[in-house]
Amino acid sequence: MNISTDIVIIGGGIAALEAARNLSRRFHVHIITKSDLTVSSSYKAQGGIAAVISADDDTALHIQDTLKAGEYHHHEGNVKALIENGASVVKELLQEGFQADHNEDGEISLGLEGAHSKHRIVHAGGDATGKNLVDYIAGELPPNVYIHTYEFAYELLLNSAHECCGVRVKTNSGEKSYFASYVILATGGAGALYECTSNCETSYGDGIALAYLAGASVTDMEFVQFHPSLLYVNGARGLVSEAVRGAGGKFVDVNGKPIMDGKHPLGDLAPRHITAYEMYKMRENGQEVFIDISRIKSFEQKFPTIHNLCSQNGVDLSNGRIPIAPGSHFLMGGVITDLYGQTSIPRLFAVGEVACTGVHGANRLASNSLLEGITFGTMMATYLLENGDNQHNFILRSDIDSPISESLLPKVLLQKAMLSNAGIVRSKEGLQKLIVQLPGITSKTGNLRGYSKERIELYFMNITASLIAHAAQERTESRGAHIRNDYPMKANHWQKRWIVFEQGKMNVRNDLYECNQTKSYVN
Ligand code: SIN
Question: String of b and e for 146-170 (b: at least 16 CB within 10 Å)?
Fold first, then answer.
């Protein structure tokens, strides 16, 4: 079955939905997701949306916090655009009717999270911001936005001019092709490449593999953020938001002794790469770690999602502490795009966690990701509303005949190997051990039609894991979330250097947009 339309969006998180509702003013939009709209990092997001909406705050401070947390490995023009446009987008969202939580004085209640110098986290339903936001925007979608659930995108269609002109998917009942003027990747991150993760179990980095195999440029894959506090009961059971520490929670050891005191000026609210590393070291030494919540009044009202998660997993909160462990949470890298989502392949766009615009640097600032999704989703849509035209060339380039031939690392072994060798702390030996088990970065796409969804998904997992491992091996320094025990310091010669994968090659560049067809934001 074939569908011809204006725009196809792959993915169902906040960037996809916000783009779709804006694009629907001019275009027919088809959203395809491999699961449903309740399965995404956006939907699970607890903390909220970081935005400068208080008179007591300033965009310059939010920009500074973002740069500091990400250790200055950013595209600064894009950071400025995110924070400044983001403040307006969030204000509009609130004005049009999105119900955020209010305090007793009737003002919007602003939370505090790690590495923020101000209370600026807009939240909803306590710790259910992502769910509330997804439900709200999905509820606003008009009838010319069509949602197709349980469809797995496995091949981007390129025409004879090497432009993207559609996508092939596998459905529960067979195959389908979409032909479109524009294809937008909004597939989210890759946290589920790791054994211990806050992400949905479907977050394998499919979109990155899809784009890379089609020839798009990908960067910053070594920067995988680990969140310091996942509920840990015989394995990771979900997130315990940083907002809990913003409300007074503290990392403690089994004896109740504070862990972060004296370790960093911001203590329990230090940037995530610092807190995750401390939790990792404790656990590696055989010590259990907890968040002490005894000083938080009305915990159940403030954090209903986390309260339920704890109850479901048999954690008795009456003793005032939650067992935790660090786990993979967010990928700072991805498909290189400009501020409007354009990738290096004409008519292929990317937005949200799958994209890399350099706004998160080496370690994303808490709650800047929902902000990114709605802000860049809106900006991309505005760009296409103003500049979009029709694709006329649907003559497909001939398939490269190189189907999956490599032996692939099975899912569970891959997730374990990623955690051990490309996790919070990396080394040359560990990365090399991992790399030899994964496909090379020269992998090219081929005709994948004959393979099952499961086989292709495993192939995509292996490809994305390989990009992470190669980039982590190449960057011989520690910066932000990329920590090497054999290169424990930042190195000047790695400052503002981007490891870029393109057409089967890995290059180190001095500019995110060097030799790239995307445009750099000029303020
Ligand atoms: C959290 O609630 O701790 C996560 C928020 C985020 O990752 O931005």
Answer: ebbbebbbbbbbbbeeebbbbbbbb
